[in-house]
């Protein structure tokens, strides 16, 4: 605490990201992609005329949004891009969820939502997951005044995804406020809700280039929704930073979107490795929640999460352990290369005997 901080800043509880170690470790703690970005990215960067950096980027990111719109079969007016999808989530909280009523959210989900709720003074109405660790869409869309609904599909850190039909059923029940579906992990086996945008003007879908497109270091995210929602995001963006997406990020994002073959190959590889890892963990006695994401949430009936986390850390393998009551026995393990997962499984084999 400092006397110079405003009361609002004194009250903040900032998000704590997974550790970014400086030494060499097998890094399975922040859901990065183990494969490189599309080859076109390095080529485009090599050919980039550095003199262009004198100029401000296009504040509307038109070229990137055109490529995004073509890739997802929506209009440019239905697209928005930002400095990582975290930034877009922050804009969305300010644009749509500050109505003085509670925001419906799963009790276990992406831990940045409570951070933004605190930052923007939004009250959360938290709904427990069901017995299968799935987001309870019925509870989330119950009656009563609300400022909106937000959830991740697939959810984090559980990995479960609802079908498009289930999400559409929720949209039929919640029509007065924005429903934000965070699709950070959708490309690893779940269905995107983008196809519903034309029919539900209150649906906002967010996504990121950080995971399935191997560009976490670039900081690029997107949102898709009706033009009136996009206008709402733009109003906040242009009251905060006119140029959140720099020229290089736009260029790289376009290259990544263009290479569908590379994108598909990487995500299929991750999915195959995920399923193989799941089987082998189950052989070791682990309970593994079914996942449509590039991570798995797992626990062992005989070994504590914290203990396994520490044992892996000693062997230079970094996974994520959450210190909350519900999750303290679990480990969240990002899907790395096959070799990395083999090292993980070998280490767990030693730790669990
Ligand atoms: C990783 C993640 C994000 C943030 O992605 P960035 O684009 O890197 O900011 C958003 N939502 C969820 C659920 C995530 O796991």
Automatic annotation (TrEMBL):
Superkingdom of the organism of origin: Bacteria
Enzyme class: transferase
UniProt-recorded Gene Ontology molecular function terms: histidinol-phosphate transaminase activity
Cofactor dependency: pyridoxal 5'-phosphate
Pathway: Amino-acid biosynthesis; L-histidine biosynthesis; L-histidine from 5-phospho-alpha-D-ribose 1-diphosphate: step 7/9
Keywords annotated in UniProt: Amino-acid biosynthesis, Aminotransferase, Histidine biosynthesis, Pyridoxal phosphate, Transferase
Catalytic activity entry: L-histidinol phosphate + 2-oxoglutarate = 3-(imidazol-4-yl)-2-oxopropyl phosphate + L-glutamate
EC nos: 2.6.1.9
Entry similarity comment: Belongs to the class-II pyridoxal-phosphate-dependent aminotransferase family. Histidinol-phosphate aminotransferase subfamily.
Gene3D superfamilies: Aspartate Aminotransferase, domain 1 (3.90.1150.10), Type I PLP-dependent aspartate aminotransferase-like (Major domain) (3.40.640.10)
Protein name, as recorded: Histidinol-phosphate aminotransferase
Organism: Vreelandella gomseomensis
Family annotation (PANTHER family): HISTIDINOL-PHOSPHATE AMINOTRANSFERASE, HISTIDINOL-PHOSPHATE AMINOTRANSFERASE 2
UniProt-listed CDD domains: AAT_like
InterPro entries found in the cross-reference section: Aminotrans_II_pyridoxalP_BS, Aminotransferase_I/II_large, HisP_aminotrans, HistidinolP_aminotransfase, PyrdxlP-dep_Trfase, PyrdxlP-dep_Trfase_major, PyrdxlP-dep_Trfase_small
Pfam families per record: Aminotran_1_2
Subunit relationships: Homodimer.
Annotated ranges, domain Aminotransferase class I/classII large: 24-348
Keyword Transport: no
Residue numbers bearing the N6-(pyridoxal phosphate)lysine modification: 211
